[in-house]
Amino acid sequence: MRHNRHKYNTGFEPFTSLIDDLFKTSIGDIVGGDISFNTPSANTKETDKAFIIELAVPGIQKDDFNIEIDKDHLVVSVDIDKKTSVAEEDDYKRREFDYRKFRRSFRLNDSIDRNHIKATYDLGVLNLNLPKLGAEILEKKTTINVD
Amino acid sequence: MTLLSFAPSHPIKYRKRPSRRNLFFRNNPLTNIVETNDSFIIQLAIPGKTKEEINIDLEDAILHISAKGNEDSAESYTRREFDYSEISKSFKIPDSVNQAEISAKMENGILFLTLLKKEDAKTLPPKSITIK
Fold first, then answer.
1. What digits encode the pLDDT tens for the residues B42-94?
2. Any idea of the CA torsion for B65, B2, A107, A63, to the nearest 10 degrees?
3. Residue B18: pLDDT above 90?
4. Which domains does chain B have, with CATH numbers?
């Protein structure tokens, strides 16, 4: 680590708890250790027709995602060659997130239609739509009138 | 990495995964800072928000980034590790930055703030000096 992180320390800072000095405090300094988050966070929800997974992966191009079904698991992974990145590793003064290489899997239950899983990437969130089996059939169900 | 223990028998009807982010970072986006010879680049991870939802203010050498939360139907989630809640983060800008030349762009859920250094704070390339 370079030592110029204290270069801009002007002495007493009464608002240290509120204001994040560019160099002085990262969360790692507070709780100890070198904390960074390389595994994206996920939300899941269930509707009548599908299970939906939202994966927060900011800063990736959609072509960088590998999404596979491996036996009973849906596996989302990204593996970008770190040498191709714009900034040099040494230039990072603080690094709390880095999603260039991760792997996260979700177990698929039997009610999911594995052939019709869809994915979209928008605003840094990967949205996975896992339709339930039989949802289409239910949709097409029509009422039959008794003559 | 688990820093705090989490009670597994949580009273909420669904089992909520202990969100590391919410324990420490609620309203506080994850941040990377890059320093180059002539600039600082701050990267804030703000997934799920459009650039129109984000406000950036500069006052007295403090750069403040904020966004209102868009609350959605939280009950329908079966697992919640992140949300699109309110964001508030401030940075004290070092004296070496030219405050008139701060620019921002939003790309795939990351807010990039570019802070150019003042001329005299730039790192000059090495140069050899000849002896006369």
1. 999 999 999 999 999 999 889 999 998 876 655 678 888 888 888 888 998 88
2. 40
3. no
4. 4-72+80-121 (2.60.40.790)
To the nearest whole Å, the CA of B40 is away from the closest chain A CA by 9
pLDDT band at A104 (very low <50, low <70, confident <90, very high): very high
Closest to A116 (Cα-Cα) out of A94, A99, A93, A136: A136
Distance from CA of A86 to the nearest CA of B (A): 11
- Which value does ipTM take for this structure? 0.70
Cβ neighbours of A23 in B, within 8 Å: 33, 94
Q: Domain of residue A59: give its range.
A: 36-138
- Chain B residue with minimum CA distance to A56: B47
Which CATH number is A87's domain given? 2.60.40.790
**Are B94 and A8 an interchain contact pair (Cβ–Cβ within 8 Å)?**
yes
The whole-angstrom separation of Cα B43 and Cα B41 is: 6
